[in-house]
Design goal:
The chain is mainly α and 128 residues long. It has seven helices and no strands. The longest helix is centred in the middle third of the chain and has 32 residues.
């Protein structure tokens, strides 16, 4: 089942690349002359560009992070090996759902185990 999660990670990475490529087809507002900026804001394609960027940054990025953490958890990696310098805490419940779905684990036991996994001291992760 971990193979399916690995494929999901690759698909999310490909989705982000495709969206970035599509965004590049339209000029950014700051690249346009001042006269054209007001017109561009009202156009449907400008809304599409912003929508694509928002989808890539907010939805695809969060799902990719949760998927990578769930995959690392299922493979037995330590949290600090995967994310050494994370500035925001990960979404525990999304990681749990992915680990349960792709790892065939119990939901309650997985949540407790994930909490311990995320709070593991750095010294233990480095020593191993």
């Amino acid at each position: 089942m971990k193979t399916y999660l690995k494929i999901k990670i690759m698909c999310l990475a490909a989705e982000a690349r495709i969206i970035r490529h599509e965004e590049g087809k339209w000029p950014r507002e700051r690249d346009l002359p001042m006269e054209e900026r007001a017109q561009t804001r009202n156009q449907e394609r400008w809304a599409t560009r912003l929508g694509l960027a928002n989808h890539r940054r907010r939805i695809v990025r969060k799902e990719a992070r949760a998927s990578l953490l769930a995959y690392g958890y299922l493979r037995g990696r330590r949290y600090r090996q995967i994310e050494a310098k994370a500035s925001t805490p990960p979404e525990l419940f999304r990681i749990r759902d992915l680990a349960v779905k792709y790892g065939g684990l119990n939901k309650v036991e997985t949540e407790n185990s994930l909490r311990d996994w995320l709070k593991e001291p750095e010294a233990t992760a480095i020593a191993a």
